[in-house]
Amino acid sequence: MVELLESYNIEVYGFQISVKIIQDGPFIRYEVEEPPLLESEAQMLAQIREEVLKRISDGSVETLVSEEGIRVLNETIGKRGLNEQVKYYIMRDLLYYGPITPFFWDQRVEDITCTSFQAPVTVFLKEYGYLQTNVSFRTEEEMISFSRRLAQFAGKQLSLANPIIDGNLPDGSRIQISLGGLIATKGTTFTIRRFRERPISFIDLCQLGTVTPEVLAFIWTCIEYGSNIIVVGGTAAGKTTFLNAILQFVPQNKKIVTIEDTREINIMHDNWLPMVTRTAPVQNQDQDSSIDMFMLLESALRHRPNYIIVGEVRGREAFTIFQALSAGRYGLATFHADDFESFLNRMESNPINLPRTLITTLDLVIVLSTRFGKYGLERKLNTVVEVVGLDPDTGEVITNDLYRRESDSYAYAGFSYVLEKIGNREGLTLEAIKDQMTKRERFIDLMMKKGISQYERISPEVDRFQHDQDASLSSLENQ
Fold first, then answer.
1. Is pLDDT larger for residue 264 or for residue 196?
2. What is the pLDDT of residues 79-102, one digit of tens each?
3. CA dist 59 to 51, 53, 65, 149, Å?
4. DSSP state, residue 126
5. Percentage, residues of the chain above pLDDT 70
6. CA–CA distance, 358 with 372 (Å, rounded to integer)
7. What is the model's pLDDT at position 186?
8. The model's pTM
9. Mean pLDDT for all residues in the chain
10. Whether the Cβ atoms of residue 270 and residue 175 lie closer than 8 Å to each other
C-alpha cells in the first residue's frame, strides 16, 4: 500500500519543485517532480547545450560558471526565445549539478549519495534516515561523466591517475568521489555532505536537545579560560557541527588557527586563520608538493595562535598537537570514537601510539551519540569526561565523568577538577567561577527565550557578554 507521508515545495531559482515523501510498504521514498519536458523541448535543450559548449573557450566548469560563460548562456537563451521549462533545465545542467540540483535547495537534505549507476541516488533526512529517490543514472559511462563534472566543480580532475577525489563544492559542501573499477568495485560512487550556509549555533544545539544550558555554560567557561578539549563520537554524531558551535566561546581578542583536510569549520572570529591540507597529484610524482596535517601543525605554531583547532585527529599529527598543548597552547579537535574507552584505545594504538603522559594534557573529552527517537535522528551530548591525571601506582588514566546524560537531563559528579585548575591558574575561587557559570547559563536561557539563535546575531552578543556580563544580561532582559 502506497501512502503519502509529506508533500512540500522547494524553490529552485524561481521554479517551484514538488517534493513527496512516500511510504511504499516497508520502504520510504523521496521523490522530486521537476517541470515536464516535451520531446521537442528535450531536443532543443540538447542543441542549446552543444551550442553553448562550442562557444565556450575550453568547455570547462570553471569557464561555464564564469562571467564569460554566463554571458554566452544568456545570449543563447535570448536568441531562442525559450519557454521557462527549457530555461530551467539549461540552468540546472550547465550552471549547477544536473539531476541532483533540487536536493541542494532542500534544507532538510543533509547528505546526497549514489553507490553505483545500478542504484538510485539516496538522500539523508534526519527524520527518516537514508531514502531512495527517483533520480538515477542509466549507465556507468553516464555516472563517470557526471562524477567528473562534480570533481571539476571542486577544482579537481577525476581520472585513472587520480581515482579518489575529496574536496569542496562552491557552496562549501564536502564531496568524496571514487572511480569505478579501480577503487569502488561496484562502479563509480559519490557522497556529498551538505554545507550549511548558516552554521548551527550553540543556542540551536540547546533547542535541538543536543545539550542543556547548564552543561553548555560549563563548556563555555572552560573554553573562555583556556582548556584542551576533544569532541568524540561515531559516524554522523555531529562532531564538527558541535565543535563549530562551541568555537563561538573563544574570545575575539584571541588568535585561532584551524587545520582541516577539507574545509568544514565556519566561524565568525576577527583573528582566525583557516588552513587546509594539499595532496600532490599522482602524475606529478612529487611528494614534496603534498602538505599534510603534520606540516600544517608545525606551520601553525609559528603563527603564535592562542587556540589550535584540528578538524579531525587521525594519525601522526596527534603527537604534534598534544606536544603543542603541553607547551601552553589551547587546542580543540574532533576524533572518531564511540566512547572515552575506545578513544583512549585508539590514541594508544597504531598509527597514533600516543604516550599516556601526553594524553593527560587533555582537560575534557566530550562524547556525542546518535539514536533514532520520536523525531527521527537525535544527536545528543552523552558524557563530559574530565581527564584528571595518571595513577602513580597503576599508570591508568584517572577520569571524572562530570556530566552523564540520564534521559533528558544530566547527572552531575559534584566536583570539577578542570574548574579547580582554572581557579588556581587565574587566581579565582570556585565560588566566583560558579557564579560566572550561572550567568552564562542565564545568558543562554535568555537567548533561547528571546528567540535569538542565528549564528551571526549570537557572536556579537557573546562578545558583549565577555566584556561586561551584568550589562549584557540587563540589555537582553530589556529587549
1. 264
2. 666 677 888 888 888 888 999 999
3. 11, 5, 10, 11
4. T
5. 94
6. 36
7. 86
8. 0.80
9. 88
10. no
What mean pLDDT is predicted for residues 380-395? 95
Distance CA 425, CA 360 (A): 17
Q: Which cell numbers hold the place of 175? A: 564531496
Please tell me the distance from the alpha carbon of residue 105 to that of residue 324, in angstroms, as a whole number: 42
How large is the average pLDDT for residues 425-442? 96
- Picking from 385, 80, 53, the residue whose alpha carbon sits closest to that of residue 232 is 385
Of 284, 347, 290, nearest to 313 by C-alpha is 347
Residue 238 CA, chain-centre distance (Å), reads 8
Given a cut of 90, whether residue 111 has pLDDT beyond it is: yes
Residue at grid coordinates 575529496: 166
Q: Which residue has the higher pLDDT, 461 or 52?
A: 461
CA distance 199 to 283: 37
Please identify which residue in the block is written with the cell numbers 599529527.
Answer: 317
List the grid coordinates of 251. 574570545
Whether the Cβ atoms of residue 113 and residue 192 lie closer than 8 Å to each other = yes
Strand 27-33 and strand 129-133: pairing? parallel
Q: 387-411 in b/e burial notation, b at 16+ Cβ within 10 A?
A: beeeeeeeeebebeebbebeeeebe
Q: Tell me: the pLDDT tens digits for 270-320?
A: 899 999 887 665 555 455 667 888 888 888 888 999 999 998 887 777 887
Where residue 411 falls (left for φ over 0; alpha for ψ -120 to 50; beta otherwise) is beta
CA distance 452 to 207: 11
How many CB atoms within 10 Å of residue 444?
22
Residues in the chain: 479
Instruction: For residue 369, give the C-alpha cell.
Output: 551519540
Model confidence at 185: pLDDT above 90: no
End-to-end, the C-alpha distance of the chain in Å comes to 52
Could you please report the per-residue DSSP string of 384-405?
Answer: EEEEEEE-TTT-PEEEEEEEEE
Give yes or no for residue 397 having a pLDDT over 90: yes
d(CA 356, CA 254): 29
Please work out, in degrees rounded to the nearest 5, the angle formed at the alpha carbon of residue 214 by the alpha carbons of 212 and 216: 70
Task: Tell me which H or E stretch contains 5.
Answer: strand 2-12
- Please spell the DSSP secondary structure of 305-365, one letter per residue: -SEEEES---STHHHHHHHHHHTT-EEEEEEE-SSHHHHHHHHHSTTT---HHHHTT--EE
